[in-house]
């Protein structure tokens, strides 16, 4: 688009993930029952899991407003990771580039980390007002640049960890499948799904922990 290069292959797989995330709650809640069954039960289980995760990291008083953000991050990363672990995108041939899970692209993971970098100071300012900036002069006013850089380096470290693990997992699976396509997918797929779920959980848990830390007072 002009002089701006768009990674269209990532946009394609991202919209596939977004479509799945939008369709799942619509299908699961279109016929709500007092005693949930089937897809409604699954959606409620996922929501309860995200609530528990957020409450554990932020406390009973602060977690509710943050559930949508943490839930969106976890759901997008989880489904993105699983799409790469369960479907070998790389076998789809494109004229330019190749398809891959959205989290297999550093642009996606850095964007997710940037959202976290904005979310946790916002939460701190919303909760504590300008006293939030007091943490930058603790224990003395000398190291504010170091304290400030931590707000960005900690979430960015999440992005590189997520990108590295998902990229390596997809690459290994793609190579092995190309060598022995009829044997490797059976044992490798469960391993990839497990790794993908753990990476989504780590990212969401630490994002919630950073936000929870910003709303706590300093003594």
Overview of this protein structure:
- The chain has 219 residues and is mostly helical.
- The protein has one domain (8-214).
- The protein is 69% helix and 0% strand.
- It contains six helices and no strands.
- It has helices at 8-29, 38-58, 67-86, 106-128, 144-179, 185-214.
- Helix 1 packs across helix 3 (67-86).
- The longest helix has 36 residues, at 144-179.
- The chain starts with 7 loop residues before the first helix and ends in a 5-residue tail after the last helix.
What key phrases describe this protein's structure?
single chain; 219 residues; mainly alpha; 6 helices; 0% strand; globular
Helix-strand layout with pairing:
Layout: H1 8-29, H2 38-58, H3 67-86, H4 106-128, H5 144-179, H6 185-214
Helix pairs in contact: 1-2, 1-3, 2-3, 2-6, 3-6, 4-5, 4-6, 5-6
Query: Structural class given helices, strands, pairing?
Result: mainly alpha
Q: Beta fraction of the residues? A: under 5%
Radius of gyration: 20 Å
Order of helices and strands: HHHHHH
* Secondary structure: number of strands: 0
The percent range for helix content is 55-70%
Largest sheet, strands/sense/barrel:
none
Low-confidence segments = none
Number of helical segments with 4 or more residues: 6
- What general outline do the C-alpha atoms trace? globular
**Arithmetic mean of pLDDT:** 78
Distance between the termini: 51 Å
Domain count: 1
Could you write a compact summary of the structure shown?
By secondary structure, this protein is mainly α.
